[in-house]
Amino acid sequence: MPSAPGSTDAVPPPPPGRLDSLDRDLSRRAAIGWPHPRWFTLPLGGLSLTANYGILWYALALLPWLLGEPRPLAKALFIAVPVTLVETTGFAIKHFVARPRPPVADPSQPRQIPLPLSKSFPSSHASMAIVGTMTLGLLYPAAFPALVGLTLVLCFSRVYLGVHYLGDVLGGAVYGLVFGVVWVLLVPAPV
Length: 191
Fold this sequence. Notes:
Layout: H1 15-33, H2 38-50, H3 55-60, H4 63-66, H5 72-97, H6 102-105, H7 124-139, H8 144-160, H9 166-186
C-alpha cells in the first residue's frame, strides 16, 4: 500500500536509482578504494589523455602512410571518419543526458588526470576505442588482439582514474559497438 503524502515511511528507490547507486559505488571503489601507485597511474593517465578527442585513433589512422600501403587515404578515412562521427554524436548524447562526471558529482573524489569539460555519459573514449579497434582490425587482422587490449586498458583507465562511471564506459562501449557494426556493414573496407 502506498504511503500517504507527508508520511515518513521509507520507500526504496526505483530500480534505476538502485542501478545508479551501484554504478557510483563500484566506480568509486575503483577510483578511490584501489591502490593508485604513481608508477602505474602516470603512464596510464598519459595513455588515457592521448585518446582525448580521438587523437590516438587519428594517429593510428596514419599507419597506412607509414607502412607505405596502397590507398593510404582511403584506409585512413575508413578509420578516422567513423571515429569522428561516433565522438560527435556521442557529444550530442552527453549534452542530452547531462550526467556530471564523478569528481563534479562528488567533490571529495581526487582528480588523477585533468577533467574534460564534457559530461560523463556515454564515454567517448570507450565508443571511439571500439570503433577504432573494429576499423583498424579489419584492415590489420594480425593487430586485432593488441587493439582489443588497448581498448580494454583505455576503458579501465577512465573508471580507475575517476573521470567516468563504469556505466558511462559500458554505455559508450555498447554505443561504439552498434555504431561500428553499422559502419563496417555500410562502408566496405578498402583492403
